[in-house]
UniProtKB/TrEMBL annotation:
Domain Bacterial virulence: 27-208
Record-linked Gene3D superfamilies: alpha/beta hydrolase
InterPro entries: AB_hydrolase_fold (IPR029058), VirJ (IPR010333)
Recorded superkingdom: Bacteria
Protein's recorded name: Virulence factor
Regions that span the bilayer: none
Length: 211
């Protein structure tokens, strides 16, 4: 079992950025795409924050630049959640994953500690792929991503009864929504492609419906 000190050090390892909001609202944890804290991520997090939520974003480009395991990521994120909720008794967590962040989120969720997972109210995946391998690939940023070794859809289907939504761009990738077998699942398509036409305010408004 990890000690409190080692758990805290794991949380400190995470490259995080926070937009402070109303602590009476659920805490939003956002896992970015492979672009890290780019214009889209900063704009989207600011848009969610304007609706009154504290948003903490994980920079996937930094954290997953070298391959790590789902267990490593889940342990570090569990430590962060445990620490964050020391001052948020009875509060809820909303987990958002975009692109690469949406790919890895199901694997992380399924490996969260019980103490962290009890806060999880809903999961929203934005424009995910069907496979991942927990490592950033520069080639994926500039061309069509290759199929990786870990099945995202199979992992989504292991997530249980958490309220889950997948948001896709109308002009983006063709994600096989019918393969998702979760009971508490919804999906929506928005105008635009991978960046939802840059309409971060509109995306935030849609996301809020599924929180």
């Amino acid at each position: 079992m990890l000690s409190a000190t080692s758990l805290f050090s794991k949380a400190q390892e995470l490259p995080l950025k926070t937009w402070k909001g109303n602590d009476r609202n659920p805490l939003v944890l956002y896992i970015s795409g492979d672009g890290g804290f780019n214009t889209f991520t900063n704009g989207f997090c600011a848009s969610v924050n304007k609706k009154g939520y504290t948003v903490t974003a994980l920079n996937s480009r930094s954290y997953f630049w070298s391959k790590i395991s789902p267990e490593q990521a889940a342990a570090a994120i569990s430590a962060y959640i445990d620490d964050a909720f020391k001052s948020r008794a009875g509060q809820q967590l909303i987990l958002l994953g975009y692109s690469f962040g949406g790919d890895v989120s199901p694997f992380i969720i399924n490996r969260l500690s019980a103490s962290a997972k009890k806060h999880l109210a809903s999961v929203i995946l934005m424009d995910p792929s069907t496979s991942t391998d927990f490592e950033i690939h520069v080639s994926d940023m500039w061309g069509k991503p290759k199929k990786r070794s870990m099945d995202v859809i199979a992992e989504i289907n292991k997530m249980g009864n958490h309220k889950t939504a997948i948001i896709l761009g109308e002009d983006g990738k063709d994600f096989p929504l019918r393969s998702v077998s979760l009971k508490n699942f919804r999906s929506e398509r928005l105008p635009g492609g991978h960046h939802f036409a840059g309409n971060t305010d509109g995306l935030a408004a849609t996301i809020q419906k599924y929180m």
